[in-house]
Design goal:
By secondary structure, the chain is mostly helical. It has one domain. Helices cover 77% and strands 8% of the residues. The chain has 3 helices and 2 strands. The chain has a two-stranded antiparallel ribbon. A hairpin with a 5-residue loop joins strand 1 and strand 2.
Length: 133
């Protein structure tokens, strides 16, 4: 909307009225709001979703590897065999199971961190390619 206001010489001119200025302000505010929302979605919300996925994946592996249960029964005899052989074999088998499970967990966590860091780097990489190529 444009108002026609005469100047001091009596000539009508046009100046932007308050609604026009409010529209420009609104558009600028919406631009920055959407930009911040996008960045919040890209970084913060993706971290929540991805970390939930990785924790769920680790819980599924724990059902097979039983890491926590194995640690709890590390010094118990194997198959309730109360002899020296049962205690010795139980300790060594459970230790081997803990080491293999630990290696699997470390590999899963390392791959998950690498994938997430690559995800975080996608946006800066795209901006770099747009600006410098």
């Amino acid at each position: 909307m444009v108002e026609h206001i005469p100047d001091k010489n009596g000539v009508e001119g046009s100046i932007p009225s308050a609604p026009t200025m409010n529209l420009v302000t609104y558009l600028i505010n919406r631009f920055f709001y959407r930009l911040i929302e996008f960045l919040r979605h890209w970084y913060f919300n993706s971290f929540k979703i991805y970390s939930h996925f990785i924790i769920s994946l680790l819980e599924k592996f724990d059902r097979k590897l039983a890491f926590k249960v194995t640690v709890k029964h590390l010094f118990h005899p194997l198959y309730q065999d109360q002899t020296l052989i049962g205690y010795t074999l139980g300790f060594f088998f459970r230790t081997a199971r803990l080491m293999s499970g630990g290696i699997i967990y470390i590999i899963i966590i390392a791959v998950a961190i690498f994938i997430y860091l690559a995800w975080l780097a996608v946006l800066p990489y795209i901006i770099y390619k747009i600006l410098y190529d």
